[in-house]
Every structure is written in C-alpha cells, then in structure tokens.
Amino acid sequence: MRESILTIPINEVFEPRCGCPICAMRNTVEDHICEYIMGAAMMEPDVREETNKLGFCHDHFNSLLKQNNRLSLGLMLNTYLATLRGEIFERKGIFFTKGAKAKKASEIEETCFVCSKVDWGVQHMLETVFKMFKDEPKFRKLYSQQEYICIPHYNLLMSNVPTMLPKSEHKAFIEATDALVENYIKSLNRDVQQFCDSFDYRNARNLHSEEMEHVRNSIERAIEFITSRKPDVK
What we know:
Number of helices: 12
Shape: globular
Number of domains: 2
Number of strands: 0
Mean pLDDT: 91
Distance between the termini: 43 Å
Structural class: mainly alpha
Radius of gyration: 22 Å
Order of helices and strands: HHHHHHHHHHHH
Strand content: under 5%
C-alpha cells in the first residue's frame, strides 16, 4: 500500500515501538478533538447542539480544562446546564414524573461528545491498520515489533477481527497480538513482583539503583496496561 493520508498517521504511532500503539492512536485523535471543540468549532451551532445533547465524561472534562481556555469551556457549560435545566430538572408534564427525571438524569453519565468522536475516529483508523496488516509484509513485521497492546485495546482489536480481516488472516493477526500481550504481561508481572519484594529489608537498597527504574515505575505501567490510561499521579 502506497503511503497516503490514511497510512501516514498509522505509521506514525507504530514506528516508535513504544507503549501500546492503539493508545497512541486514541490519544492523537482525542487531542485533535479537544483542540477542535475548544477553538472556532465551539461557536458552530451543530457542534454546540451535540455538546448540549451529549455532554462530557469526567476524563474529557479534565482534558478540556487542560486546554487552558476557560472561557470557551464556560460558554459550553453554560448552554449545557441550560439544556439540562430545560429538558430534565425544570421540565413540566403529566408524564414527566420524578422517576422519569431520575432516569433521564442517570443517562447523563452514559454519554460524552469527545468519547463518541474518538470512538468513531479510532474505528476508522483501525480499518487501515487491518488493511495494512493484510496487504503489507513490512507493516505486519512492524506490528509484531510493538512493545505491547494494552488489555482494553486487545479486546477492541479482537472484537474487530471477524469483520475487518478475511478468515485466512485471522490466525496470523491473533497470534501476533497474543504474543505482544503475553510477553509484556509476563515481564510486567515480574517487575511488580520485584517491586513488592523490594520492601523486604534484605532488598531495600536494590530499588534505588539506576537500573531498577523499570521496577520503580512498574505500578504505573501496570495500571496503564490494564486500563489504557496513564495514572494521574504527581
């Protein structure tokens, strides 16, 4: 496959061979979406209508706050709160009882404008990943050289295998992906075990040597591997 507008972003996240490439893909799409809606798009009626309808999850409220544009976020929150007031909490009607309000309010936690756009973007990029794996031996080799695939994105990839790859390619893709997960979880488990063992007084000094950095950060790496998100610790 000739390098194109579709393949370039895929190669960019796979070529570093560092971390989970699908996480890197997700993060790239996520950053673009957050920058987009906090910019000029924030005033576009169709975007505002969607943000008023879907709102944002906790993680993406944090992402928007990090854009350092509190006025844009404030304007979106203002119309979103007005929408919640009018459609749920101040809505009158014989059929819109307290129980109906509670049910409607509970749905707020289930939707997020950024999540919906990121899911759409990642899904379309995965189509290119599978096509490149099928058609390009060079990319297939690059795929097998990744550091790891995190558990949530392992599940995402496996769920897409039946629809995005011909049956003849299932075995090769699954084996390559399984190997990435199995090799990493084995070494990660060993590092976490070594971290725990270091609290034995007989091993206390070992943890502070330079070559033990992979053991010191094993807790954070394990959380990222299990959740696909870096822990927010300082």
